[in-house]
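User: Hey, quick favor. My workstation is busy. Could you predict this chain's structure for me?
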Amino acid sequence: MAGGARICDAFVVEALSDTDLRRLAVSYAELVHALGIPAGEPLLVLPNAEFFPDRFTHDGPSVERLAARMQGYAGLEDVTIELVLAGEPPALDAGGCGTGGCGTGACATPQASDAPLPRLERAADRWLLRVPAAELKDPILLTARLATSLGAVALAERHPEGLARAENPESAELAAVALGFGVLLLEASYMYRKGCGGPNIGRGTVLGLSELAVAFALSVAREKHSLGKALGELATTQRALVKEAVALVAESPTLVRLLREDPARAARGDFRLRDRGPFWSKLFGRRARPQGKEARLEAALSALERGASVDELAELVGPADGE
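Assistant: No problem, here it is.
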């Protein structure tokens, strides 16, 4: 379940079309509805000491503590999950240069897909979660994989289509975003690494960075999370894509309202994109509205840094009168 990563693929981060945005919005809405996730309940889990205070020592007990903590953040305390470390933990000083060392090359695919047994397996009254030991040396990949596995468990336990959805890696990653792990997946979707042959880009997710950025923007809008802290935890490329995705989502306030109040309707595609609502006078009074697309975008991004709401952003990025 929740298949292996693709590392060192040659890929380009591309902007998503409205068709892509609609598809992702429908998929995301269907998941939050089917999983029964109340709006405002999921935490915005960040890769910092506030959410992960335990010292990680790259061994079995550390991974067990990490997985248990993340299981609590996912709201899956009622599910029994037994973690199994597959293989021997890697020697952290074995590398020669950069991340990953020269022995297998910095672009080597982590050993998740080489494991003889599935990552997730139902066993009587519990789930077995197998973590390839090779992942212990890469916290970004490890936490993203754990988050995706928890998304798969949530799908198997709570989605009407159960195991069929859990075995779809894209659905598992979307579920992980909906459960609050979007930042962890974003970091794993575009990993800049320095290897023996020079810099390279690694990708540890099935969904691309642009897709995850939109899914994350939808989750932030639905849960009314402040973006300031999240942006501070993201790498430069991820931060830029998230800002663009948030501006896109902000142009569709009806979609955001449906995600909060009636996700089943949003899952049917019963919404329009870019239907900016009349919030300007209510939110900004008589202050002059920025004129010109570039000026409005700059104002929106500044507001985003301050933790502005989706409604405020919708007003800033929408077209000016007469445009």
